[in-house]
Amino acid sequence: MRPEPLLSIRNLRTRFKTYEGMVTAVDRLSLDVHRGETLGVVGESGCGKSVTALSILRLLPSPPAEIQGEILFEGTNILDLTPDRIRQIRGNAISIIFQEPLTSLNPVLTIGEQISEAIRLHQGVTRQEAWKRAVEMLELVQIPSPDARAHEYPHQLSGGMRQRAMIAMALSCRPQLLLADEPTTALDVTIQAQIIDLMVRLKEEFRTSIVLITHNLGLIAGMARRVVVMYLGKMVEEAPVKDLFREPLHPYTQGLLESIPWIGQKLKTGKRLLREIPGIVPNPLEMPEGCRFHPRCPRVMEVCRKEEPPLKELNGGRKVLCWLWN
Amino acid sequence: MTEKKKSNELQSYWSGNRELRRRWAKLRRNKAALFGGVLILIYLFTALFGPILYPGNPSAPNLIRSLETPSRQHPLGTDELGRSILGRIVHGSRVSLLIAIGVVSLGLLLGVPLGLVSGYYGGKVDFGIQRITDTMLAFPGFLLALALVAVLGVGLKNTVISVGISMVPIYIRLVRGCVLSVREQVYVEAARALGTRDVAILMRHILPNVMVPITVQTSLGMGTAILFAAGLGFLGVGVQPPTPEWGAMLGSGRAYLFHAPHVATFPGIAIFLAVLGFNLSGDGLREALDPRFKL
Predict the structure, then answer these.
(1) Across residues A128-143, what is the average pLDDT?
(2) Testing the interface with A: which of B194, B196, B206, B212 to mutate, by most A Cβ within 10 A?
(3) Contact criterion met (CB below 8 Å) for B169 and B159
(4) Could you give the ipTM of this predicted complex?
(5) Which of B164, B155, B108 has the alpha carbon at shortest distance from B136?
(6) What is the overall mean pLDDT for chain B?
(7) Which CATH code, of 1.10.3720.10, 1.20.58.100, 1.10.10.10, 3.20.20.105, is assigned to B99-289?
(8) At the N or C end, where does chain A have fewer CB atoms within 10 A?
(9) Chain B partners of A59 at a C-beta cutoff of 8 Å?
């Protein structure tokens, strides 16, 4: 029996009330994050990855958002907590890094002020002590001359440094869970590699669990042990990362993997072609009936158009939402 | 090592102020704003030290010398009661400065918090505050101040209250508009994600980011306040004689406009220059601070 997961999401359903009707961004999502684990969440834009992260921290304004289901963090349902309690969890037990390091820092406060504010919020230390720890955090994320940098404003830092500062801020209270929402999307490739190295190192050091949200499969391959693939608010496949890359089960995952180019690949001929997934992501207001992927699926069957497939659990901790495996 | 650290700190100090220095340089290059600034300095100097430089009671009548034209003893002449007009303008600058500061403080004190709350929370709170603001803005500003004076009565205190309240909706609208755009910024969400309280988000993260328009509006508001207060004084419902007030001086000089035009002209010029100073420097500040006017 595995130990109890740190975070356990059960039947999460996040919907938004719009003028055209209810939009379901996340639909009956269930997943577990274990202690010290990195869970990858991949999918196209608009598949509900970020909304899931924001739902966990209850950062979605309600209305228009409506969240149902259970989000159990160390056994307590986050959705039942009072606003005061959830505030104590934010930034303290669960932190989030957003994808835009350029806009995630307040332009009128220095880096040191912003990090020490996060520390003072949850640790009840003096201003000087918080500042000292902020500088330590900057050192930990390998920002050169952290003393001087702490006195600088965000516009004086490069994109990579700002993201490092964001990581420093997110980890300043040693959270148990870090939600990284496309942490490297806005950065150069070389800087991306540095940020990933940094996150891997700090994860080991702090024993933090990470939920890594991205559409970058390479990043998932490098960091995560388990992967959840999402499509239109639903989890379509869950697998250990090696199995997923070796043998993707869901046609959508197969399509995703075939659409990654690699160096030396011939585009027109050769063993593997660079392929795209045909069609576009449907309008969430007009969800297709049956399996949501059926209009774009190359292996669509009659049953897919009528009935939604159940989530099938397979050997080796794999799950797949597809009629092909039922 | 420490020396190196120090030089680092020094360097970051200077680069931290580079932006500020650039904007200051820009403000200095703007001749109109500079002229406005000089006018404000003269005005402030007069208000602060004038009564020392020009001692005596500006309200004591001396009927033998009434309506005299400018002379060495009374450089700007005398009014219908034989009082030195220069003396009354100098002492009056203090009154108008007091009113301007009072009015703007009242406007800021009520308008900024209401605007912050209205913009940040939205919903019913916003709806309520905005409908009140709409109602107040439906009146021309001066008419609103006049109506409030009619309710409250005349005098210095009531002038400040009525002009101040008539300016509150302007600040509410301005601040609310800015908050609406700032609150959508990722850093506000990031602050919330760190568990920051609403009050701290408003005061530490949002307010500093809306300070530029507030600063500009404050400078422009000082000019408007002087003008409104003078308007009320001119109509006889503002600060009451014998207190030297520019608007009231203008009003009482009106009767002698044909045979002693200096009685009304000089207070008028004083009002004009003070308001011009605040308006020019307000526009200059806007150009220097507003990123949309960047080089």
Answers:
(1) 91
(2) B194
(3) no
(4) 0.81
(5) B164
(6) 88
(7) 1.10.3720.10
(8) N
(9) 189, 192-193
